UniProtKB/TrEMBL annotation:
One Pfam family from the record: Acetyltransf_1
Keywords: Acyltransferase, Transferase
Keyword Flavoprotein part of the UniProt annotation: no
The name this protein goes by in its record: GNAT family N-acetyltransferase
Domain of life of the source: Bacteria
Organism: Luteibacter sahnii
InterPro entries (alphabetical): Acyl_CoA_acyltransferase, Bact_Acetyltransf, GNAT_dom
Domain N-acetyltransferase residues, every copy: 3-151
Length: 151
């Protein structure tokens, strides 16, 4: 079946939030607060500077998504596009959904003049890492650190 990649619409927000809940549980064993997540997804639609979502459809049915956010690089005088919140519905996995989403992201980033595309992946997610390497992405030499502010 042919995959269509499109910009997400606000009426996709419930699917995106549901997929993010599933992704957090599947990849990290984390239970996210559904109401906070729903507000977070809708905040992207409310303020495009925060990012954009892309949705993959198969026969008109949404089967996956990702979010793109932006990071300014003063070293390169340009934006890196970060791929985040990747999810593919279980019955659509291994069917080229992420490959199609990634192709659209890289095409959009090139047209926009981005200096690169990045993503982070859970250290134990070998299958995702193999997928990204198979698409020509390379592991970078940075480790990620964070200091969470918990309300």
């Amino acid at each position: 079946m042919t995959l269509q990649i499109r910009a997400a619409r606000v009426d996709d927000a419930d699917d995106i939030a549901r997929w993010n809940l599933a992704m957090a549980w599947e990849t990290e064993g984390k239970r996210l607060d559904p109401e906070t997540l729903a507000r977070g997804v809708r905040a992207v639609f409310a303020e495009p500077r925060r990012g954009i979502y892309l949705v993959a459809e198969q026969a008109g049915v949404p089967v996956g998504c990702l979010m793109i956010t932006y990071e300014w690089s003063d070293w390169r005088c340009g934006d890196f596009w970060w791929i985040q919140s990747v999810y593919v519905a279980p019955d659509a996995r291994r069917g080229g959904v992420f490959r199609a989403l990634y192709a659209e992201v890289t095409s959009m980033a090139e047209r926009a003049g981005a200096v690169g595309v990045r993503l982070y992946v859970e250290t134990g997610n070998a299958r995702a890492q193999a997928t990204y390497a198979g698409l020509g992405m390379a592991r970078c030499h940075y480790a990620m650190y964070e200091a969470m502010r918990v309300p």
